Amino acid sequence: MADKNEYISARTHSKACLEINKAIMNKAHEEGGDVTSSEHLASAFLLLGITETSEDDAVEPTSIECENESEPLTYKAAIRSPQARQWKEAMRQKWQALVDNHTFDIVAKGNTVYTPTTDRTVEEPIGCKWVYKRKINPDESTRYKARLVIKGYEQKEGIDYDETYAPVSKMATFQLILALAAQYGWDVDHMDVVTAFLNPKIDRDNIYMEMPLGIDWLVSDESALDGSILILRKALYGLKQAPRLWYEDIDGYLQSIGFRQSAEDPNLYLQQGVLLVLYVDDLLIAYNGKEGR
User: Fold this and answer.
1) How many domains does the chain have?
2) Is 220 within a domain?
3) I need a labelling partner for 190 at 20 to 30 A (CA). Which of 13, 15, 105, 239 fits?
4) 115-127 confidence digits (pLDDT tens)
């Protein structure tokens, strides 16, 4: 019954949000001006019967803020949750992994970097955010994961990226390989490349990112934080060109170890006794027993 009530509450909350948004837009169009101005917001709330609340009366967001109470949607929610210690440890581990992987360098904000296409400066870094995930291990223990994601929607075409296209394998290729494996008794394995998008080097030297929330306790040397931002050296999740960079990286590696690319499907790779299909960061490998190994 609780799940049903939560579902109804969520639907009611979503409907209220739509009504508020509609009222704000209508009020702004009637009077002209910025729809985000405090006057229009206050007028729209009054139309809906919503009055201002003081900080003391404000209710802390709970299940409405998060799809799953154990998976916070914001950094603030994570460090205020009962699992704050676990989330902070997950962020610390991820930050250290990125440092060890040489994903970025710390640079002083205010330095100007000129490129042939733009005079973009480090005064315009791209934002980032933490994404949290709670997973259950096979032994039923709980694992807390944090991922640092760049806000790719803030990137500017022609400045931060050009091509974003990355091919994926055809469904007919999967069907053919599974049919051949069944007919000839081949072995079939599946492989998932861990942190695939974090492996390739960046294709530009002018992508700057803000320091993530929590940097004050993630870095021991506080002097390195004063007016500093990050310049990317390798791809991050959320980066628009990350899928293409990963494809170019894995394509070059597979061909370097003897695989040749199919003319019919660029994501099908052939070698003596082995058929390999690439689908983003997942690999399906069919091989003929000992010959394929």
Assistant:
1) 2
2) no
3) 239
4) 444 455 555 899 9
